[in-house]
Design a protein that fits this description.
This protein is an alpha+beta fold. The protein has 2 domains: 197 residues, no CATH class; 92 residues. The protein has a 9-stranded mixed sheet, with no helix packed on it. A 5-stranded antiparallel sheet has the order 3-4-12-13-14. A hairpin with an 8-residue loop joins strand 12 and strand 13. It is elongated and about 115 Å long.
Length: 352
């Protein structure tokens, strides 16, 4: 008696294996495409989140920059010399340390960067009586604490020093900012006061109210694109100048990854005398960018890119302000341009 044979022939099995392989390969291909698409969407979402964060950070900072200060500030740095800088300064060259680079006309070849003096504390008092290069009798020393940076503004220049002591005596409230009162603070030097007109240690009596601003502990800030630490991953860095101990340099921390360009332009008031309205936009190469008192708004352009080159079509970094477009590549990019108002005007301060 013959039994019927059951099962698959070799040909049938080979057909089934090939068919299964095609189906699995197709499924894996779909999975890879989906995975790649998901990663790209996440990268684009991260770029947009970083752009939104940068906009919020800069708009908030510009609202406070230079509040209560003169157009320039003077201070004794850790390198043994007096610096005098604008409360808001832009650099067309991305070089660090900053180099003189404001030349009308021409083409920019790298990102801009910006330095600013941020009044983060905003506690204010006034000279009430006499003052010298070492101390000041004030209306009230409430809210002023050891290590705070003080700004004393005379005739439009703000001299900065560290607060070393507060006392209440027969003179009333007094602030001390002389080296004799200690502390390893580079800014704590009476020589700075010469920039505000005090050339001797003699006590002076103001002829008009002289404000003293408490700026907190770290008033010097900067934003700069770092293209060298990780060449394949440019970053927007936030810097703070310590100005104590032995350091006059910025301490940098990443603010946003993937930022490859930062371009700045200013809305300036060209009227004489200024009428508090912006007339023209200028780029960071214009010499008018040094006149802080004429700045009414800052136009910020940020270009950010994905970590890897995955675009199907090669395109270069877009051109903005005075910088031309970049060499074509396959990075995906997002750009954002926004306005940050600069509401604070440089203070004239008092006289003596």
């Amino acid at each position: 008696m013959k039994h019927a044979q059951s099962g698959f022939t070799l040909v049938e099995m080979m057909v089934a294996v090939v068919t299964s392989s095609i189906v699995i390969a197709g499924a894996l291909s779909v999975q890879l495409v989906f995975h790649r698409s998901t990663n790209e969407e996440e990268s684009i979402a991260d770029m947009q989140a970083n752009l939104d964060g940068i906009r919020f950070f800069m708009q908030k900072s510009m609202r406070q920059v230079g509040a209560g200060l003169g157009a320039s500030v003077a201070f004794y740095n850790c390198n043994g010399g007096v610096e005098r800088v604008n409360t808001l300064g832009v650099h067309n060259s991305n070089a660090l340390p900053a180099v003189p680079d404001l030349v009308d006309g021409g083409v920019d070849t790298d990102p801009d960067w910006i330095e600013y003096t941020l009044s983060s504390n905003l506690t204010v008092t006034y000279v009430d009586g006499q003052f010298s290069r070492q101390w000041a009798d004030v209306k009230d020393n409430t809210g002023f604490h050891h290590k705070n940076v003080l700004g004393l503004t005379i005739n439009g220049v703000t001299c900065l020093m560290r607060l070393t002591n507060t006392v209440s005596n027969a003179h009333g409230d007094r602030l001390h900012f002389a080296p004799a009162h200690g502390g390893p603070f580079c800014m704590n030097q009476v020589i700075t006061m010469a920039e505000c007109g005090l050339s001797t240690n003699s006590a002076q009596t103001p002829t008009s109210p002289i404000p003293i601003m408490n700026l907190g502990e770290f008033p010097f800030h900067a934003l700069r694109v770092d293209t060298t630490t990780l060449p394949n991953t440019p970053m927007l860095m936030h810097g703070v100048r310590m100005l104590q101990g032995t350091s006059s340099d910025y301490t940098w921390t990443p603010l946003a990854m993937g930022v490859e360009d930062l371009q700045l332009a200013f809305h300036v008031d060209t009227s004489d005398p200024p009428d508090d309205r912006g007339d023209i936009w200028i780029n960071s190469r214009d010499t008018l960018a040094t006149e802080v008192g004429r700045m009414r708004a800052l136009r910020v352009t940020v270009v950010i890119r994905t970590p890897t080159q995955s675009a199907s079509v090669a395109q270069g970094r877009p051109a903005f302000e005075d910088r031309s477009a970049g060499t074509p590549d396959r990075f995906k990019r997002r750009t954002m341009q926004f306005i940050a108002k600069i509401p604070n005007r440089p203070g004239r301060g008092g006289t003596f």
